[in-house]
What we know:
- The chain is of the alpha+beta class.
- Helix content is 38%, strand content 28%.
- The strands form 2 sheets. The protein has an 8-stranded mixed β-sheet, with helices on both faces. Strands 7-8-9-10 form a 4-stranded antiparallel β-sheet, sandwiched between helices.
- A hairpin with a 2-residue loop joins β8 and β9.
- The chain starts with a strand and ends in a 5-residue tail after the last strand.
Amino acid sequence: MKIRVLPWHEADPSELRQLYMDYAFPTYWGSAIVDDRLQDYRFRKVAGAADEDPGGTFVAEVDGSIQGAARIARVDHLSDHFGIEVGSIENEAFGAYHPAEAYRMALELIRTLKQRAAERACLFVSVSASSMAGPWLRALEESGFRYADGFVRMVADSRDSYDAFIRPDVIIRDPVPSDFDDIAASYELVPFVNHWLHEPEFARTRMLQLYVKRYREVHERSQGRVLIGEIEGRFAGALILLVDEDIKKETGITVNPLSMGIIVHPRAARRGVSLSLVAHRHNLYRELGMRYGYFGANINSRPMIRGLQKMGMSYAGIDFGLILRLGERG
């Protein structure tokens, strides 16, 4: 078996397109959302990223046939915020090769991506891999990547009703300025699982600033909506509502990015705030024309996972986050 890794623009465009049309859009693995419009959309976005960064995307050929591709990209929000170069492996797609041969191909592709990350002075490289991509996961681990965290995916059909989980004592409203202080305080007070916090270069306080910044940006830039849950006149929790406007414009399909974007204040824990917010958002998504909502929870958040299961959402797979350090510990 002959394996060759080459730059994106040296590969046959029609073969590349077929590779991405056949490999399910990772954000929607295992769900009813996948269709040819989304597959074509994804290929056009991947090809556009390769055009913008010609040296970042690579293709793997096995015996002259394209069987894999992926990109090394800069994680701007982490790199800029911490002054540390952080890269990520993304836009991956693989053919239906025998697992043993797919593993060998993935090893060669990862070796090239690691080399390019080192050339770009990345201290860390992260990757999110679907549990269904077995040979890819095995090759990442063999290449030095280690488990960082996991994310359980769930799909909700707009025809389903979660009104039974809307608590009458949880008032849902739009945010006021003081809510962002309460969001920041909530992150400070609750156990916070983030694999970057195990690395000395990433201070907890500064990492939490990024999370609060996300809520502010969604609200202030009208990128979506921030829903506030209030109990007895006091902040209880917050949840982000987003629609992928680019996908909607390009395909006519209304979907949300894979994100919960939820925080509950400790004083409101175990009072049904999170599920009430999710149920309320589900109704708003329906009004926006969303056929399927795509949600999830950190694999360490058992209460959230159990809550989504209790609501009756459909399981759609697990993402594993992995991380590789290319430099010495700080």
